Amino acid sequence: MYGFDFMFSIFPIIFFVVFTLVISVFITTFVRAFKSSRHVHHAANQVLSAAMDQVQQEEENRPKSLSGMDSILVPQITADFPHFSERQMKDEAAEFAAQSLRNLGMDVTCVHNVVFSSYDRLDPMRTITMQLAIELDSTNNKQRRYELQCTSRSLLSPDEGIRAVNCPNCAAPLSNIHTPCPYCGTTAKVPFDMLWQFSGLRAK
């Protein structure tokens, strides 16, 4: 009877100890699982963040798409200016844009592409609008899209009056420095900056 009473009295203590051990094991397992889950979640976030950074970097490094209409606009420009040089225009535009940005303190690495996006025939001027893909960071190869306008100059200048330009062959006065001499057909070798003027460089 005494032994039974002893076992009966110690049973709650044994139950409490076992229950405490079970709860401790459960809590320990739960905490470890939670920490492991947090580590997995953190690692997953790092992988995802790295992947997004890579995609963004590739997007910045990829040559910017430009809205070029060269095949349509060049024939229109050439119709107005028979001796128009597409290559010279683009080279001069790239040089002007790069120098303008460098003057603003930007690190211009190179101009990747230049295209014609529009051509306005507003008498007496003609304006060509170009888009340029310019690399601004030599470390990260970041590119930006810029827009630049180039307007044809006229012999009539409000500040300077009439600019006297004569044919280099027959010395006849030229009324249009963009076209050959109407008397002998010779083209005057006029500097590019007398024929065209750049303006309106801005980021797109």
The biggest beta sheet is recorded as:
4 strands, antiparallel
Q: What sort of overall outline do the alpha carbons produce when their principal axes are compared?
A: rod-shaped
Radius of gyration, Cα only, in angstroms? 38 Å
Extended strand count: 6
* Major sheet: arrangement of strands: 1-2-3-6
Percent range for β-strand residues: 15-25%
Proportion in helices: 40-55%
Averaged pLDDT: 76
Q: Distance between termini?
A: 97 Å
User: How large is the count of helical segments?
Assistant: 4
Number of individual domains: 2
Can you walk me through this structure?
By secondary structure, this protein is an alpha+beta fold. The protein folds into two domains: 1-61; 70-203. It contains four helices and six strands.
Give a short summary of the structure.
46% of the residues lie in helices and 23% in strands. The chain is α+β, with helices and mostly antiparallel strands and 204 residues long. The termini are far apart.
